Amino acid sequence: MLNFHTPSPIAILGTGGVAQDLARGLIGLGHTVMLAGRDAADAAQRLAAFSAETGARTGSYAEAAAFGAAVFLAVKGTAAEAVLHAAGPALAGKLVIDATNPIADEAPDHGVLRFFTDRNDSLGERLQAAFPAVKIVKAFNTVGSAHFVRPSFAGGPGSMFIAGNDTEAKAAVARLIEAWGWEPYDVGRIEGARTTEPLCQLWCLPGFLRNDWVHAFKVIA
Ligand SMILES: NC(=O)c1ccc[n+]([C@@H]2O[C@H](COP(=O)([O-])OP(=O)(O)OC[C@H]3O[C@@H](n4cnc5c(N)ncnc54)[C@H](OP(=O)(O)O)[C@@H]3O)[C@@H](O)[C@H]2O)c1
Question: What pTM did the predictor assign?
Answer without folding.
Answer: 0.98
